[in-house]
Amino acid sequence: MTSRHPFSIRISLSQKAMIEAYGAALGLDLYQAGVRVFEAGLASLVMPGAVTTSTGNDLIDALGDISATVRRMEAITDRALFTAVCAYVYAQRTALKGEADPSKINQALAAEAAEAYQRQKTLAQKTQVSGPS
Q: What is the pTM assigned to this prediction?
């Protein structure tokens, strides 16, 4: 068994959270997880490509999952934007049928849209902070 020497470093709260999550996934305490992270990081710097642990593969898989999720979210966001634009155009066309001054209709629609947007944004922020009910 190799001898160990004490070594201390400072990490950010987000790095600590990542190490804790890594340790929790493997059933390790923070200290043990930190040692493994340090050893894997050092090995990857000294011998690039030498770290081929299952943890490395797990990280690659996790990044792939995150990437796929981001692509799905982009598609959903794009679809939502398209739907909102369609609704706006439909409302504008419907409202303009009986109005002689299009600028009044546009102003009214913009004001209503801004209010609805703020309501939805506020609801989304509350949901983000407190979680879904």
A: 0.38
